[in-house]
Amino acid sequence: MTDVRRPAGALTAPAAPFLFRAHPGPGLEVAFTSVDAGNLAFHVSGVVGVSGTPAAGRTSSKGGDGAGDDANGAGDPRERVKASRRGIEAALGIPPGRTEYLTQVHSARVVPAAGRGWGESPAAEEADALVSPTGRDPLAIMVADCLPVVFASRRSVEATAAVGRDGRARVSGPGAGGTGPLTGPTAVAHAGRRGLLDGILQNTVERMRREGSGHEPGDIQAWIGPAICGRCYEVPEQMRRDGTAQIPATHSTTTWGAPALDLPAGAQAVLESLGVTVHRSPVCTREDSRLFSHRRDPGRGRFIGLVWRREEGQGTSPREGSEGSEGNEGNEGSQGSQGSQGSEG
Predict the structure, then answer these.
(1) How far apart are CA 114 and CA 97, in angstroms?
(2) pTM value?
(3) Whole-angstrom distance between the N-terminal and C-terminal Cα of the chain?
(4) Percent composition of the chain: helix, strand, coil (DSSP 3-state, to 5)
(5) SS3 of 63, please?
(6) What is the sign of the dihedral through the CA atoms of 7, 295, 247 and 198?
(7) What residue ranges in the chain does DSSP mark as E strands?
(8) Which CATH number fits domain 19-41+100-309: 3.40.50.261, 3.40.50.1010, 3.40.50.300, 3.60.140.10?
(9) Average pLDDT, stretch 102-118?
(10) pLDDT of residue 46
(11) What family is this protein classified in (predicted)?
């Protein structure tokens, strides 16, 4: 069942650096950052921290980017990004440098988690979705108008997954199926216009099921984060026709009467057709200054959607049952993580 008002999970009160944070399963974190987390993309060097609030774990001597002048790299954009990434990891209890990113290229390519974070690997792989067979790899996807989609899952009905040294799921016997907790593979995906139409979400779901996620309706859950909405994503009329021909739910018109595409609605339709339970943010990046938006403010920064399952006793988690305000989610944003990204709005 779809809830377009509020994603599933126990929420913490949304505060910097998160716009939304949930705890939908044992040790499971799902989060979308805000501008208060700072710019999280190395390929973007614009000013960050619109509100003037420092990112998590950082101190700011001046309003604006919240990066500070001394300990966090002064005016060096790469050092500011590193400090921002470490701040997010500290807030979630993730070891510094352990979160995995991608060089996003608006493709339909899905790759498995490498087991090495941004602080350990010199270059991120070119792809637009990342799957963790165990769910224990911290995964991030970067956006600024495109859709950040975060996935969690239950193990397959047919088999439980034993994990080999390579981190791959291995069939080892009967499993609990669709009634169990969300302890299966996790994933993140970047769905811009091109990736959505080319099948990035279908490919991500297919890869998760190959790695041990269940096939029953609801065994995979997806959080569509804040993105540019159908009221704001103006495109040429031919582009709208082409998109609508593939995914009818994308058809839209802007508030000023121009042809548009509704990427969140299209992503929801695709995922639900695959039996995925969808939790969709109502927040539009172009309309909401708490988020980076390439169309509203090109080059300012990228926020992330993130998923991670901690081991018992590792890190911190939201207090079970606590809630925050509605509408704290993240969506559109076509950017990469460590490498370069496109600018599609």
Answers:
(1) 13
(2) 0.78
(3) 29
(4) 20, 25, 60
(5) coil
(6) negative
(7) 10-11, 18-23, 28-33, 110-112, 129-132, 139-143, 147-153, 161-163, 169-171, 186-191, 220-224, 251-253, 259-261, 277-280, 303-309
(8) 3.60.140.10
(9) 95
(10) 57
(11) Belongs to the purine nucleoside phosphorylase YfiH/LACC1 family.
